[in-house]
Description:
CATH topology of the largest domain: Immunoglobulin-like
Largest sheet: 7 strands, mixed
Number of strands: 39
Helix content: under 10%
CATH architecture of the largest domain: Sandwich
Number of helices: 2
CATH class of the largest domain: Mainly Beta
Radius of gyration: 58 Å
Strand content: over 45%
Structural class: mainly beta
Distance between the termini: 153 Å
Amino acid sequence: MTETTTPPENNPPEKKPSKPGLFMSRHLKAKPPAPAGQPPPPVKNAAPGQPAKPGMPDDKRWLSSDAPLPDSAVSEAELEEELHTIYDGPEATDMTRLTRVRSSLARKTLIGLAVFFGFLAAVSWAGFLFFNPTDRKFSGEGVELVIEGPHEIKSGEPITYVVSYRNGERVPLGTASLEMRLPKEFVVTETNPKPGDDGLWRVGSLAPGKDDQIEIKGVVQAPLGQPLDLQAILTYRPADFNSEFQKVATLSAPVADSVFALSATGPAKIMPGDKVTIDIGYVNQSETEFKKMRVVADFPPSFIPESVEPTATDDAKNTWNLDSIAPNTEGHIKISGTFASDAKGLNEIKARLGYLDANEEFKIQKEASYSADVVEGQLALALILNGKSGDQPVAFGDTLHYAVTWRNTGEVSLDDVEISILLDAQPDQNRVLLWNQMKDKEQGVRDGNRVTWTKRQVRALGRIGPSDEGTIDFDVPLLAAPLDDAKSGDYRVTSSLEAKIGLIDHEPADRVIQAPPFAAIVSSDARLEAATRYFNEDGIPIGSGPLPPRVDEATTYRVTWTLTNSLHDLADLKLSARLPDNVVWTGKSSVDAGDLKFDAAVGKIVWNLNWLPITVSKMTVSFDVAITPTADQRGKVPTLVDAVIFEARDKVNGNAIILSTPPTTTSPEADDLAASKGRVQ
């Protein structure tokens, strides 16, 4: 059964759309509503027996019907008829022209604004890319700073450094300033342009591509081999930044030479004992005056200088301080002396020229050397003190044991030989050595501080044949303590030995042979005492336990080490002693200064102090130890503390000081009340 529905009469007819394409589909072609009383045409996209899909738009309601569509399919003839009705009917759409549909004002306004702002954004980006391209952004890599100068420096010669800077960026630099960090050895003589009062060069603004430079002139006075480092720092702020940037450049060059010339000359061949004169010459080859200069000569141990001109600054006759050396001037130093009897072969003498810096340190500018070929002589002469030669430390109260030895190393005889020794004592020639206690079995002749032996005292000196040798021994004691009225605390005895040869192979000769001099340097007057007590000086017990000590019972004693010193400051002080197996450290101690410890692992007491000035003339270390005598010590006086060893260094002359004391026992000599009560019961 087919159901039909007739549209209401008051329903106005639907207006046809202007675009024909909206009324067509691949499977369904729309046509006007069927006349009243006729069923509407079937819908092709509906399945047989199913209603059409709901939800169609309101403006297309005329395509639908209130009644369900028939199940039959639309024939081709019907489709053709519908198409003719749409396109050929009286209300057919004119497809030959397009009709513009007017839209609302709000929509037009929104579209216009969108277009306007899009155009504005496009113009803005185009302007940014045109006026600020990416290659104009500041990176800092285009800022250049370079120092130009010599790659090797000649001390004393004028030097020019050029510092160049350039802005290779496309952004201008503002508030730029340049700082130069120069070594202290470089003395500035001229700058172009000049820096400000704060030492900075105010560059100011630096436009893109702009460059400039500063010039610094000066003179370097530096030791040979020292590298000289310069540093330039450019501080700037780009025009479009609020932060400061820096560019740093450095230049390093070694001091390879100086403007000075130095030479050392002398005879090519020499025999021991022959007088030789060595000339040290120096020249300032620059236009600059140099002040606080110094010349130093380094002699081999076998060379003995006797006289120098001009006068040397020191007693060793090898140092000369020169107030100044004028431009383009030269000077000479003459050194006269001899080579010792044991000298042979090449012996080098070095000369050094330099200046004294602000700390009075010697900085070398030039070096030279001279080598003398010393032919082995006929007489070898040597001086031995306390079993060895050369400088050595001695103490107040020591006895100086001298041995003078000689040997004929030639092939001819030496006749009428005279040997003498000069003992130069300081600070007082007559009181440092106790000449009245001198012991000399050869009975040499003393004249002041010189002792001489000839063939009258030693027969062997009348004729010394080839390979003959001999020895003279003598002793001279030192004073026991420093002099109260001495102005100097430098106590020493310098020994000089020489031999005069009257005849060589029966021919007259005037040859003097010398041995290298050396000094016995007196160390400070440090003294050490070790004492044990049971009672103090007032008779009050400071020890405990049985007295005399008894087997298997502990008795405590107080041990005191007393150090005195008044001549020189001491450094690196150390006192140490071991305890016997049956003696224990109680832990009770007292020290004036320093650090006192007991090393239980080795059973050793150690006291250390870094420095002891002469203003502290006395230092005391005390501690308690307890002894428990064993059965085998019954009837004996046992040891409380082994020998004390004292070590220190004399800060004036560098001598090592070593002192010792004998072991302390249970019979303390300083304690009258306990001295006789030390034997174990």
